[in-house]
Design brief:
Layout: H1 18-30, H2 36-44, H3 49-58, H4 61-68, H5 73-78, H6 80-83, H7 91-102, H8 106-117, H9 126-136, H10 138-145, H11 151-164, H12 168-182, H13 190-203, H14 212-216, H15 220-227, H16 233-244, H17 252-255
Helix pairs in contact: 1-2, 2-8, 2-12, 3-9, 7-10, 10-11, 11-12, 11-13, 13-16
Length: 260
Amino acid sequence: MTNLPFVHPDRQMARFQPMKALRHFRNLIADKEDTEQVFHIIRALSDNRFVDRAREFWTSSAGRKVLAEPETLIDILDDHAALRKLPMGTVAHAYCDFMEKEGLTAQGLADEYEKFADKTERHDDLLELYGNRQRDTHDLYHVLTGYGRDALGEQCVLAFTYSQNPNWGILFIAWAGGREIKKGLKHVPIYSAIREAQKAGKVAQKIAHQDVRAMLAEPLADARKRLGIGEPAVYNKAHEMMRAGGIDPYDLLGQNTAAA
């Protein structure tokens, strides 16, 4: 991997296409499990900040270490047998618990991306590799921030991610998704929870820029403290309010209209 160019000479940089993003967002609202739409939106609203973040990482000591690694991040994250050998209470165990409970794998998310990527230009360069790293660390964001895979939790993770690696597409999905959730939940602090997550991502160390193998071996509480990630208080309050109103946060989009 160390011989990869930063930007392949044949790569055409993504253009800013807001109307295309809106079309794919409507598709995502119609089927929230259609993960491919997320990749389309992010690509349609990309700008040069992604290039700047990629350069920042690959010139860092952590980035150079990744380039020397024989294993990919997916190899590391999906080897639960090896991760389970680390002490109880570590990020590794929390990650395995989360992934196994949700029936997820890092490879599975990469496979979803491939459905989208087959329709776009792909190049062997460090920009591609950096984008893959952002994708492959997504579920680590859930574990480290405490945001679940409920509808609000996903919007909060995206808002947190935007502050870590700015992309207008990520921010658009976070807030537009929040608007959909808010429709039937007038008195629940949906927007405040998303805003809290966006602020938290800004002050925290960049998760995708960490030495992931070392981070997995840290006690979860210690890793959160070191990274500067606090408890998502407003998100937790929103969940409490939903449940008090007889709404399951994990079936939110199926129920919130009835709560209006």
